[in-house]
Specification:
Blueprint: E1 2-6, H1 10-23, E2 28-32, H2 35-44, E3 51-54, H3 63-70, E4 81-85, H4 90-98, E5 103-106, H5 111-133
Parallel strand pairs: 1-2, 1-3, 3-4, 4-5
Helix pairs in contact: 1-5, 2-3
């Protein structure tokens, strides 16, 4: 499974990476510190990610701006995107769904809850990816 994590907070990047390592899942992780860097990565890579995890509150190009751009690009608009944010702003959540996210997950503070959410998320999308690859 190839994941693109778009997250500006270094501690959150480390937290996510360590959690994936603890879960002992097979993954390739790409990281971008904001939406603009993510767009640059996506435009240059030959192998697109299977899943994008997107923070909303970032400098330069925030999550909602990123969504608007990527959903207008035929090569990229079908990549599943999960908003993974501390935001509880209902307007942000509704906008994300209107723009076509697959899901919105609020980042939990408790380590055990965080680990469980990442486990469920990775398992769910891994199953979907395998199902889509079968003829």
């Amino acid at each position: 499974m190839k994941i693109l994590l778009i997250e500006d907070d270094l501690l959150e990047q480390v937290r996510f990476t360590q959690t994936l390592s603890l879960l002992q899942v097979d993954y390739i992780l790409m990281q971008a510190e904001d939406g603009q860097v993510a767009l640059d990565i996506l435009k240059e890579t030959k192998t697109l990610p299977d899943l994008i995890l997107l923070d909303l509150n970032m400098p330069r190009l925030n999550g909602i701006e990123f969504l608007k751009i990527i959903k207008s690009m035929p090569r990229l608009n079908t990549i599943p995107i999960v908003a993974f944010s501390t935001s509880t702003n209902i307007s942000d959540i509704n906008t994300c769904y209107q723009l076509g996210i697959a899901s919105f997950i609020h980042k939990p503070l408790k380590p055990k809850t965080y680990t469980n959410i990442i486990r469920i998320l990775v398992n769910y999308w891994s199953i979907n990816i395998i199902a889509l690859q079968k003829p």
